[in-house]
Amino acid sequence: MAIHLTKESKVLVQGMTGGEGMKHTRRMLAAGTNVVGGVNPRKAGQTVDFDDRAVPVFGSVADGVQATGADVTVVFVPPAHAKAAVMEAADAGIGLAVVITEGIPVHDSVAFTAYARQKGTRIIGPNCPGLITPGQSNAGIIPADITKPGRIGLVSKSGTLTYQLMYELRDIGFSTCVGIGGDPVVGTTHIDCLAAFQDDPDTDLVVLIGEIGGDAEERAAAYIREHVTKPVVAYIAGFTAPEGRTMGHAGAIVSGSSGTAQAKQDALEAVGVRVGGTPTETARHVLAVLEAGR
Description:
Blueprint: E1 10-14, H1 19-30, E2 34-39, E3 47-50, E4 53-58, H2 61-68, E5 72-75, H3 79-91, E6 96-99, H4 106-119, E7 122-124, E8 130-133, E9 137-140, E10 149-156, H5 159-168, E11 174-179, H6 190-199, E12 205-211, H7 216-227, E13 232-237, H8 261-269, E14 274-276, H9 279-292
Parallel strand pairs: 1-2, 1-5, 2-4, 5-6, 6-7, 10-11, 10-12, 12-13, 13-14
Antiparallel strand pairs: 3-4, 8-9, 8-11
């Protein structure tokens, strides 16, 4: 099993005919993703050849859903058009929208995440690498060849750290890896993924990657205390970040004592989560927990 994305998922790519869309659609197909179409109103009716696969282009998400039964969309459209693209997907009944686009204005993200929630569409992102269920499907830009299927679940604010932990633990493998994005407003949270991994019988342990800014990790710690029985191992990025300065992600800003890496580590350790000082140490914690559970 997996969370949110399986080999049965039928994927549309909004912005497939652009440079990034083309590149990553080819990579998704190579990973086994069932990409059933792209969306571009100006190129409706055309097909795009990806090696041995011809993928049709539809004029709208609704047309793509009607023709293919698509239930996932990956959004590679420019920031100015992302709000309209996500709302179009929600109106078409898409169950999962993976918003790769970075630089989306916060007020647009607030609007489309609220709209999607009302319509029953889950948003991953924005400004995220997407998600991958190794050996089954890959929706986004996560490299598919750095790990294998296994029984670790991963949820991360950081794309780069997602890749690093996947590689560090490649010999163990992952059920699903979810990059939720590091913007101030995201559609899926650490807690959402913790709940899904808790309910997934093929996930034995969860790796949680956080970073400075906000209180998402503290809220995740409170959720773990009350609802998560599986072991959780964490890494918090940003211990050396200067106060009051955004570092990397738009949401990674510390104000006073709120949102510091130390506060997040303390909250997680207080509920029994092992927190690594580096990604490599975090991977060692995972191996130790799995070994102790055998």
